[in-house]
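To whoever is on call:

I kicked off a structure prediction for a single chain this morning and the downstream step that reads the tokens threw a length-mismatch warning. I double-checked the sequence; it's 333 residues and nothing unusual in it as far as I can see. Pasting both halves so you can look.
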Amino acid sequence: MPAPGVSIARDGTTAPLQLVATAVGAPAFVTSYLDRFYEPAETALVAALAERPLGVTALWRLVAPTAPRREMRAFLERANRRGVIERTTRDRYGLVSFHDRFVVWIFFEGWLDLPADVRDQLREWELSAYVEQARPYVEAAQAGRPIDPIENQTYLLLDEVEAILRAQEHVYLYPCDCRAIMGRCHKPTLNCLRFEGPHGHYHDLGWEISTERAVEVARDANRAGLMQTGGMPGAPMRGICTCCPDCCFPHLAGERLEAGKLWPLTRFVARIEAASCDGCNRCAARCPFDAIIRSAGPTKGELVVPAIDTTLCRGCGLCATGCHSTAIVMDPV
């Protein structure tokens, strides 16, 4: 297997960075930095796949005809893990967009190779692209039209998350790409969970963990004040995201599209049972949307219960999981 960073091509085959930028849809401002994202032989691979997916033999002839075939296979698998290409069938590969390469780079390589102003431009570029991707689904939600269940971004209660995780045969742990990209909060990042798809899991990355460990990760994230989102329960699902309103792309897309209450989709609203409430205000501290008005404390010996503004409540359930007296009920909308 070739060493990291070493071209498999014996003749030093490469492709111009401008050609690479066009093929993968990279923004113009990052073209001169693409050598940080693509190794020399990978640029030739991008050029070879610019028009259509190809098999191993065709790629071998185009990119590294003098290299041993086993090295070519290892090179292709590494390029898949790096988010340069993706496996479309067992022996066939296709090109992926710069969005995929950027996310993998953020996961495991990092920001320090780029100037601060370029990092800021990349953040905005990635978020703007996500907003446009989400727009038709948000507009469908606004119009009351059905949405493809796998494309839903839906708030999930912790007990729903646990049931979904226990039903999976394979679960993979990943860093959160939203918090890695945006970096606007100090919440933990190693807590996004992905599931097996038709061609494996996302670029064969992440760490496979047991379902019980996945449940622990979800509980830890919830304790840290992170919401959980995913597809609609009962429908096929790619994974479970752990979200904060500062960095989470679905939340930021909802705000930009003036649909914050609709996206991610709300299925519950919190209600406080006054008889069980001890007035600790922990729920108000945990609410990411300032939907809970703090209690002012006992008045004339009577407990004043916090109030919930249902127009702001998203039904994420963080208040309920943080309530030591189990006084909060999540009512279906």
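Update from on-call: the warning came from a stale cache, not from the record. Cleared it. Sanity check on the structure: The chain has a mean pLDDT of 89.
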